[in-house]
């Protein structure tokens, strides 16, 4: 059969179009992100990946599940910070959807800079937060120099995040010691008017968040340089507040206010001293990779 020139061209165009459509279809089938038609709620199985059940972010997430119509029928999978970070790493490596409970400062934003907080129009998670220093009642009278040092302690969020990123490859004490050596002017502001002591013991309780680990490590080194013997004990949030309120511990750098630890704070505020923020500009909320085409909690869909 004779094939005319125009028929040949038509056949070639049809073949190219078919291959192009097939190729596009294959790409879309391999990816669950980047499409306006992606149902992210269904893709994450209507589940938010959280951290420890007792953490402030977890309590706020439980409240969000009640407050937002878009989260009707959803659940939060609370386990541990390590499990959440592992799930986040795996999802981003495979470019899969995931919704986590996140907070800043945290090194995960340095490791995965293309992440974003979902807008929270109902302000369930609050706005900008402070991380505050807390002490037991009576510390000011018992250890005035330690109290003065703790009261004068301040950190910029950039310094905090840089150190948090470094402790993935080094011990917090090593990172803290190097930062202190590199920032003598800042340390001098904290220690202004603080006299040295000879072997006084002070106990710090720290929740297992990297921000708290860094603040504890830095202040442990500074206190030791002033002659204190420092013991730091890792605890969960509830124990942190209880031990301060009962006078069983001396200080902490883990008071996230005014939202994250509000319920614990209200319960114990009359039995602890709040020295105010040592770091400003913290934030908590729901976080997603930037390749997910959603911007607000209200962009999610209820489970049918």
UniProtKB/TrEMBL annotation:
GO MF terms held by the record: amine transmembrane transporter activity; carnitine transmembrane transporter activity
One Gene Ontology cellular component: ATP-binding cassette (ABC) transporter complex
Domain ABC-type glycine betaine transport system substrate-binding: 41-181, 201-302
Transmembrane as UniProt keyword: no
Main localization category: membrane
InterPro entries on file: ABC_Gly_betaine_transp_sub-bd
Extent of the signal sequence: 1-22
Listed GO biological process terms: choline transport; glycine betaine transport
Localisation: Cell membrane
Keywords: Cell membrane, Membrane, Signal, Transport
Origin superkingdom: Bacteria
PANTHER family on file: GLYCINE BETAINE/PROLINE BETAINE TRANSPORT SYSTEM PERMEASE PROTEIN PROW, GLYCINE BETAINE_PROLINE BETAINE TRANSPORT SYSTEM PERMEASE PROTEIN PROW
Protein name: Glycine/betaine ABC transporter
The organism of origin for this protein: Filobacillus milosensis
């Amino acid at each position: 059969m004779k094939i005319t020139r125009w028929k040949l061209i038509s056949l070639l165009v049809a073949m190219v179009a078919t291959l192009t459509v097939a190729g596009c279809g294959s790409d879309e089938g391999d990816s669950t992100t980047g499409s306006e038609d992606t149902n992210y709620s269904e893709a994450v199985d209507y589940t938010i990946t959280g951290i420890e059940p007792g953490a402030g972010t977890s309590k706020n997430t439980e409240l969000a599940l009640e407050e937002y119509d878009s989260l009707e029928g959803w659940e939060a999978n609370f386990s541990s910070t390590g499990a959440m970070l592992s799930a986040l790493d795996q999802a981003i490596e495979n470019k899969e959807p995931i919704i986590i409970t996140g907070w800043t400062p945290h090194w995960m934003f340095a490791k995965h800079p293309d992440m974003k907080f979902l807008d929270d129009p109902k302000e369930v998670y609050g706005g900008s937060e402070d991380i505050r220093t807390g002490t037991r009642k009576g510390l000011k009278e018992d250890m005035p120099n330690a109290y003065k040092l703790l009261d004068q302690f301040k950190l910029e969020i950039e310094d905090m995040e840089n150190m948090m990123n470094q402790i993935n490859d080094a011990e917090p004490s090593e990172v803290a010691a190097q930062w202190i050596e590199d920032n003598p002017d800042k340390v001098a502001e904290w220690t202004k008017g603080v006299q040295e002591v000879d072997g006084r013991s002070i106990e710090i309780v720290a929740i297992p968040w990297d921000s708290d680990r860094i603040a504890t490590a830095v202040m442990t080194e500074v206190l030791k340089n002033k002659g204190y013997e420092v013991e730091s004990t890792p605890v969960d949030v509830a124990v942190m507040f209880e031990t301060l309120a009962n006078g069983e511990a001396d200080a902490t750098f883990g008071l996230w206010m005014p939202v994250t630890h509000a319920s614990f704070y209200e319960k114990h505020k009359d039995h602890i001293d709040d020295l105010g923020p040592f770091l400003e500009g913290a934030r908590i909320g729901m976080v997603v990779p930037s390749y997910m085409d959603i911007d607000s909690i209200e962009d999610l869909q209820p489970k049918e």
